[in-house]
Amino acid sequence: MRTALCALGAAAALVLLPAGPALAEGQEPDRDFTIADPRITESSGIAASRAHPGIYWTHNDQDAPLIYGIDSRTGETVATLTMQGVGTPRDMEGIAVGPDGDIYVGDIGDNLDGSWDHVWIYRFPEPKTLRDQKVAAEQYDVKYADGPRNAEALMVHPKTGRVYIASKNEDGGGLYAGPEKLSTSGTNTFRRVDDVPWVTDGAFSPDGGRLVLRGYFSAKEYVWKDGRLGDGGTGVGAPFQGQAESVTYTPDGSAFMFGSEGRSSKVVRVDRAGSDRPATESPGSTPKAPDAPAATPGADGQDGQGSATTGFLVLAGATVLVLGFKRLLRR
């Protein structure tokens, strides 16, 4: 009897214990997950693996040449890749997987907006096995035809393989197209082909027909036509995240995966079918905030600053409420 009671007590305790950050074993891939690796504190880019279902590649916003493979079923790191053959990264901000099966990493950040006359792109084949390993990477020198600028979004078109960069500017940035093929023997000049709002990351859909761009407070999906943004974009129900830094599509193109910086940061799935309204939340997911439209610079006199201001006011209001609640608890 005592043994049976102990067993019942243990079972009850397990039921009452709060769930941990990692997903249960056997969870479906490409759903909400929490990055469990304590080394990943500034996840600045995210890309779905082409070779390994359910795996997402990410990296820190720092100067270590490390790329992490995260299993979306558990949130655990299943591979740490150390890039070799490249210099010391300065500010890695974006990552994408190309149609050739190579991983592209954008060392394209420049917080002083013009302090560096060139930036870098790294490229290496996606490994066939998931394990900690060194990878031989190629390094490409990159400059912009209209001068240095800060950028956080690197995209590779899944059909043509052409690399694009979206510059980051509160008043609106530019979409830049690289040469048809990158070269390691000289400078690769990226030329402005379109205007974009305030962008922290972007990604092409798997079929190459759409491009999603996110900022700190909103996201838009555009039709991709003739190498440019083909329409005014459709608002996406992006999650409200503390440091909204990354976005990619799921491998089947049915949903977006939104990521954020911070320790134990959450990657949140938003289904495309519900892009005109907040997606149904998974248990423990980040609450969704109403989507603020991200205006394209020059349209109706807007420059994207309005959406940023709205998001800032929402964040400020939430902060005041939290601080007020804490103050009441101290009384």
CATH class: Mainly Beta
N→C terminal distance: 47 Å
Count of DSSP strands: 22
Shape: globular
Low-confidence stretches: 1-24, 274-331
- Secondary-structure element series: HEEEEEEEEEEEEEEEEEEEEEEH
Count of spatially separate domains: 1
Strands of the widest sheet, in order across it, are 6-7-8-10-14-13-12-11
Report the C-alpha radius of gyration, rounded: 21 Å
Mean pLDDT: 80
CATH topology: Neuraminidase
- The residue fraction in helices comes out at 10-25%
Strand content: 35-45%
How large is the count of helical segments? Answer: 2
Derived structural class: mainly beta
User: Under the CATH scheme, which architecture would be assigned?
Assistant: 6 Propeller
- Major sheet characteristics: 8 strands, mixed
> From the structure provided, what is the oligomeric state, counting identical versus distinct chains?
single chain
Write up what this structure looks like:
With 331 residues, the chain is mainly beta. The chain has a single domain (20-330), classed as Neuraminidase. Helices cover 12% and strands 37% of the residues. It has 2 helices and 22 strands.
